[in-house]
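Render this sequence as a predicted structure.
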Amino acid sequence: MKFKFKIVAVTASVLFLSLSLLSVNQYIQVDSSVNKLVRSSANAVAVGLANNVAQVIDDKRIIAKYLVDLIEDDITEENIERVYTKDVIKNEFVLAGVGFESDGSVLDNDPNWIPASNYDSRQRPWYIDAKKSMNLIVTAPYSDSVTKDIIVSMGLPLRQSGQFVGAMFLDVSLQSLGDILN
């Protein structure tokens, strides 16, 4: 082999090796940058969704506290029915109702739901937790017996002249939260 060919072969090999190393280095840097960008975007979306959920829940809490104020002004069946038949209640909540301390009975806004004869609102988690905390509570998610949707219940104590007389519940569908986010 002539010396000229050896120099061309060595030069070509060095160039090939250099370009290969540069290409690998560039690939690694681009891959790293893309992964960082994807993670950053995913985190931003997750934070945005979390903020949206928090805002929706806060809005529902504000409505719930306002409802308690309206009902506590006049804890009668007529007033409760008047409050619960408002469109905003039907649109924001799956079901709304009041359980009474005196007998465990429940008054709700769904004429199609008829509780079992042994239904005692005082035994429900929303009632127990609202009475115990004397503040707004949110239950753990559970499957609704009628709709089979996964829901949470907001529970709030009702007071008359400072005395606990019952608790209000407002059922929120997790599916509706998902729909809002989508």
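Summary. The chain has one domain: 48-181. The first strand starts at residue 95 and ends at 100.
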